[in-house]
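notes to self, project folder thing:

trying the whole complex as one job this time. last attempt i did each chain seperately and stitching them together was a nightmare. two parts in total, labels are on each line so i dont mix them up again. if this works i'll redo the older ones the same way
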Amino acid sequence: MVILAILLPILLGSLLLLGLPRTLGVWGAGLSFLLNLYLFLTHPGGMAHEVTLPLLPGFGVYWAFGLDGLAALFFLTIGLTVFLGALVAQVEGRFLGLALLMSGLLLGLFAARDLLVFYLFFEAALIPALLMLLFYGGEGRLKALYTFLLFTLAGSLPMLAAILAVKALGGSPSFLLEDLLAHPVGGRVAFWVFLGFALAFAIKTPLFPLHAWLPLFHQENHPSGLADAMGTLYKVGVFAFFRFAIPLAPGGFAELQGLLLFLAAISALYGAWVAFSAKDFKTLLAYAGVSHMGVAALGVFSGTPEGAMGGLYLLAASGVYTGGLFLLAGRLYERLHTLEIGRFRGLAESAPGLSALALFLFLAMVGLPGLSGFPGELLTLLGAYKASPWLTALAFLSVIAGVAYALTAFQKVFWEEGQRGAEDLKGAEWPFAFLAVAALVLMGVFPGFFVKGLEPLAEAFAKILGGGA
Amino acid sequence: MTLMVLTVFSVALTLLGFFVSVPLYKRLTILGLSLALLSLLLTWGRPFALGPYQVDGIAQVFTLLALLGALWTVGLVRSRRFEFYLLVLYAALGMHLLASTKNLILMLVALEALSLPLYALATWRKGEGLEAALKYFLLGALAAAFFLYGTALHYGATGSLLAGTPGEGPLYALALGLLLVGLGFKVALAPFHFWTPDVYQGSPTPVVLFMATGVKAAAFAALLRVAAPGVPDALTLLIALSVILGNLAALGQQEAKRLLAYSSIAHAGYMALALYTGNATALGFYLLTYVLATGLAFAVLSEVSPDRVPLERLKGLFHRDPLLGLGLFVASLSLLGLPPLAGFWGKYLVFTEAAKAGQWGLLVLALITSAVSAYYYLALGLAVFQKGAAEARPRPLARSVALGVALLLILLGLIPGAVLPALAAG
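result (full assembly):
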């Protein structure tokens, strides 16, 4: 089943790349979403749907996938976001194909149970992102592309070294996660190994000061917002810290925990600060993303079960609301051909449905109780407070700042007096709005239902740190 | 058997050259190389020895790679004179011989047998080509002298002419060092690399393809035998120099062939990482992906122009001819080692060998320089997507070959396990 869920979007995406009509992509994304939803709903909570096929058995590499509570949650949010994107983004079939291809690779990344296979998907997911930027990006796309790629590659090669070292020095017979966990590395090696992982994942989180590629990436991508929504899903750093880097080298993490907590808090504040002064809708969202990922990273770095759960929940939820906001930005751009916040003004009058949807998304983003951002932020707060009260207090200034920048932007765009009118929601945008709002509310009101499989994982995570540090 | 096929065809074609038309001649050469390939595959995994001529696993794997390079070169070239094909055939014979012997004297003979035709091939274009060929020849002769001197010392130190004989003492170390220098020239390891950019730029593209693939494969087979028992520390230095110099120098290049020349120095460094454990499978797979990707890159370049190809001239190639453009893009990404392309597994395998040998410093250096290489490989691969008016008059065959090899690079990246056992058995 998992293999099917991963292969379906990859195959469909490839077919679309060869020139099949766009409609097929929309149906395919829907099918993929339903399949992921089914996998999530029938998920027992523990590890399920395990598959292991040989890739390079002589070298201990296996196509090993499995769905635990965490991966299932990400399957759900990825399926949903891609489906939403396919519904509303007015892009040609090939573009949609790239997005589908990327979603399949991301699914593989989240389900991978083999470190090297994880690395493969991690890197391979880069290619569709790169091609989307290359073929459908703006004027300055080559610069954005270079920055993006150099940052990513600079991070992923130390990670490859860390992967090789973890196996060679730990003496594990294979790259399977369970084997690696049974043969941990210790001492100085653990420090270097963790550093190798940390570089790659800090760039993908993105943590300040390694976030420099992100704003450019979003500015230059296609205005439809589809590529941006995919880019939001590609922020896998927090997840990778939780699943791989920290459990595989807990000793190394213990040495760097203070620094990482500090960087996470700084990212949260810095992102919020820049977002506050952003003139452009996408820049605002990009930096808001930096800020939110800082908070999520803070949760995981706290090493507490609550913090880890909160951080991961925030990561999953942000895929939906930030992705949704990027898609919304695309809708606005299509209507008014600008993304400059100062030039919208007073859209609420002419487009009430659109502004209601935007309000929902913004409020979810700032963590209003009852919407999807809140449970994650609350849990993170609880967990991080245990680890470092001061940094937590500092980081949570960003939540207040978040309310400020989000509401200011919303007020400027939709309420302030102005002449600009725009068409309200139409056609496929209605199901898009309903689905998005439903997801935001459900994830906010029944967080327990979505985190059912997360608790044992977070407990085990905290236990590794308690015993191994 | 492979030797027989190659010899028979070389001799027969030498005589036939004066009677047969050139197109037919080309076909006959391809037939000869293909038959040699076939004979190799028929005897795959079955070692064979006749005096100092010993076809073992290493010989088979690396002959296969060298023959692939030769076939590609012959297929690519549009020569109006039959000598070109004949010289390639002779060089292939030398390569097979170099890969299939442990005897240092025979190695030297083979080395010259493959080098002499290449000196001639390097002059194929008048003007600039002559200077390049002269450089190549002088340094090649020097390399042969080093190799010969090393052979003599090797005999003095161990009393044996067989590569891989264990020995000790400063004399032995010097002998190994000199042999390493001699072969280092052929694979273009720094600091014996300085002929590479000029020769690559000055020689016709198909010849460069041959130098980059076939010569490398054969010389690495010899290096494996010479270096396997106890790799001297000198190798560490050579590798470090190669990956640093090669990558840094490639960064500043604006001409595609020169860029690939410098990058080939870096690749020689990466390949040499497998010499520490003497693992022929890892090295063979790396070379296979390298032969495919470099071959593809040069094939596309030669469709654009048989001459110099500044990166400027590649701009717009994708819009003009999507298949060729995509081919160069895929080749660049594979050379860069981006998963899931085949090049990634090549790098992964040799890096694993370095890890096994405990060469962590070199490994980190190799990874950092790999990251640096991303910059110029992207410049090369992305140039085809930029706006511009590239000229290309590709033949339909070139298009389908570009497509086929690009697909092969992707496929090998997805299921590397399909080829590895076969390489290990060879």
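what i see at first glance: Chain A is about 75% helix and 5% strand.
need to look closer tmrw
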